[in-house]
Amino acid sequence: MTDSIEVEETAPSGLFSTAINILAAPSEAIAEIQQRPTKLFPLGLVLISTALSMAWYFSIVDFSWYVDDILTLQNIPEDRLEESREAMLSLSQNMFMLIAVVGGTVFTLVYYSLQSGYLALISALTGDGQKFSRWFSLVCWTSLPVLLGVAGMIMTILLSPNGQLSPTELNPLTLRNLGFVSDNNSLNTLSDFFNLTMIWSIGLLTMGYKHWQGSSLIKAIVVIATPYLLIASIWVFVALT
Q1: Is residue 97 helix, strand or coil?
Q2: Which of 67, 61, 66 is nearest to 82 (CA)?
Q3: Residue 18's closest CA among 109, 165, 144?
Q4: CB of 76 within 8 A of CB of 84?
Q5: How many domains does the chain have?
Q6: Any domain includes 11
Q7: Which of 17, 123, 129, 133 could form a disulfide with 1 if both were Cys (CB 3.0 to 4.6 A apart)?
Q8: The domain containing residue 201 runs over which residues?
Q9: Residue 162: inside a domain, yes or no?
């Protein structure tokens, strides 16, 4: 089975040009990705930049202050506070760095795979011929706005020379740091998860789906946004009940 839309072959624009275009001229980049669905370059940019920024954060953070901040965020009961603090301090700062780097890498791979698997399932149900590997390429490329979030994290680290920087304050583009703060910790966690670069990436993925499938904008929005809206709705419902 063939792809949904036949695309006229054009000369390769190059990986760096495609990376720039996905931010500045997304229609051109999406057409290029449709013809040459590479994966390793955009995936490597995201994983390496994120890993380096997290490694840098844990190399400069005031570790004792960080532990106290995490315990405060978790609302640990007073009678268990000291026990929890000792348990966290029993792990080295480098161990926390390793957990953050490895955990972040695994989370990103699983997250991208789930997105791609969902889109591949939609393709299988509609019979449009798009396979998992092609969707994975589009997901990787449309996730490149995360690099702007990494740049924001770097600026935040540079502006915190004393090392007393909470992980919730690290990315200045999260909804929480943009003012969406609640007395409900579960809602704050949701605000920490969603950020402007993620919303940008969702928009790019919607554009990619519309272009590749030749669908209406409404259908593309419904297909791409539904999982996010569903997860957010369930999260809010559980948090409020």
Answers
A1: helix
A2: 67
A3: 144
A4: yes
A5: 1
A6: no
A7: 129
A8: 19-240
A9: yes
* Residue 23 included in any domain: yes
Residue 194, token pair as written in the block: 């969603």
The span from the CA of 58 to the CA of 156, in Å, is 13
Q: Are 169 and 195 in contact (CB under 8 A)?
A: no
Q: For 195, which DSSP code?
A: B
pLDDT (tens digit, 0 to 9) for every residue of the chain, 241 residues total?
A: 344 445 567 777 899 999 999 999 999 999 999 999 999 999 999 999 999 999 999 999 999 999 999 988 887 778 888 899 999 999 999 999 999 999 999 999 999 999 999 999 999 999 988 999 999 999 999 999 999 999 999 999 999 989 999 999 999 999 999 999 988 888 999 999 999 999 999 999 999 999 999 999 999 999 999 999 999 999 999 999 8
Look up the pTM and report it: 0.91
Upper half-sphere CA count for residue 127 (Cβ side, 13 Å): 0
Which tokens hold the place of 236? 């809010």
Residue type, 70: I
Q: How far apart are the first and last CA of the chain?
A: 47
